[in-house]
Write a structure and sequence with these properties.
- It is a single chain.
- α1 packs antiparallel against α2.
- This protein is mainly alpha-helical.
- The longest helix has 38 residues.
- It has one domain: Rhopdopsin 7-helix transmembrane proteins.
- The chain is built from twelve helices and three strands, in the order ααββαααβααααααα.
- 30% of the residues are buried.
Length: 310
């Protein structure tokens, strides 16, 4: 078992540059989407604020996952370490940053539910048994938010920092001491609360198709498939995997980098009011640009005419 946990290959430069570019693009698209929501008159202030929180949450998930965590997982051991994130100078452990990312991703589910409740209560007539007070709605969503945020906390509490040194005999020779020093490992028994919270969160999220389509397909599904692929090849076909230039987890990191951008673009493209607002901004910009060019051309012609006369 001395070569069971093979050292992950170095992050390809092209992958790293692309992931950083996509994270920057996520920030750009999120800012654009927030601007459209704030400028739109088709949604109420409460609904607009919920949309903005949802967009900002998706953006922060991308930043934490790509720039702060950049996780590398040891398989089949339950260990993780930060590879070479852009914000590697931040004093945070791999377990804390990974748990933070999971909490932020799970936190979007109650926000979707709050949006659903707001739409439902808007059309529910007064006097209906399904008409709830604002206090009851806020309290219910707040309890859900605390529950989903606990996902990262249960993951972090299962960490055993000193456990990494007991796994040295399971690592291949190319592992160096600097990686082992920043490695975080977990107790499988202590992870049971995390499994329970994760199971309930996934089943609750199934009720919301938008939530199931974006974070599930772009974050959860690639992550799960890459872990399964890594487990299969590292366990039964280690020689085949050693010849690969790219590992499944590297491809997963690239796919996840589309998360916030896809979220923002989906909101814009599926909402007629936001599409119209974006088209209006584009037409205004093009009109102003055309006007400036015309003025510059006339100014240049006037100058040439003046020089010819003199």
């Amino acid at each position: 078992m001395s070569d069971y946990c093979i050292h992950p290959k170095g992050d390809l430069l092209v992958f790293k540059v692309f992931r950083n570019f996509m994270t920057f693009l996520s920030i750009t698209f999120t800012i654009l989407s927030v601007f459209l929501v704030r400028k739109s008159h088709s949604v109420t202030r409460v609904y607009a604020n919920l949309l903005i929180v949802l967009l900002l949450d998706s953006m922060v998930v991308d930043i934490v996952f790509q720039w702060l965590t950049d996780p590398a997982f040891l398989l089949p051991l339950l260990c993780v370490y930060r590879r070479s994130p852009l914000l590697r100078a931040m004093p945070i452990s791999a377990a804390a940053s990974t748990g933070l990312c999971q909490s932020l991703l799970a936190a979007s589910c109650p926000i979707y539910f709050a949006l659903f409740i707001y739409r439902h209560q808007t059309v529910t007539p007064l006097g209906s048994r399904f008409k709830f007070s604002n206090t009851a709605r806020i309290l219910f969503v707040a309890v859900l938010e605390v529950f989903f945020l606990s996902m990262g906390a249960t993951f972090y509490m299962a960490g055993i920092p000193a456990r990494s040194y007991s796994y040295i005999s399971h690592l291949a020779d190319e592992w160096n001491s600097s990686v082992i020093d920043r490695m975080e490992c977990f107790n499988t028994d202590a992870l049971y609360p995390y499994y329970v919270v994760s199971f309930l969160a996934v089943n609750f999220a199934i009720f919301f198709i938008i939530l199931a389509l974006i974070p599930l397909l772009i974050v959860v599904a690639p992550f799960g498939l890459s872990l399964v692929g890594n487990m299969i090849f590292s366990n039964w076909f280690p020689d085949v995997m050693s010849d690969w230039a790219v590992e499944p987890l590297d491809i997963m990191m690239v796919v996840v980098s589309f998360h916030a951008s896809t979220h923002s673009l989906t909101m814009i493209l599926t909402t007629p009011a936001f599409r119209s607002q974006l088209a209006q901004i584009f037409m205004t910009f093009m009109t102003k640009t055309s006007t400036v060019n015309v003025r510059r051309r006339h100014t240049r012609e006037d100058e040439e005419e003046y020089l010819q006369r003199n």
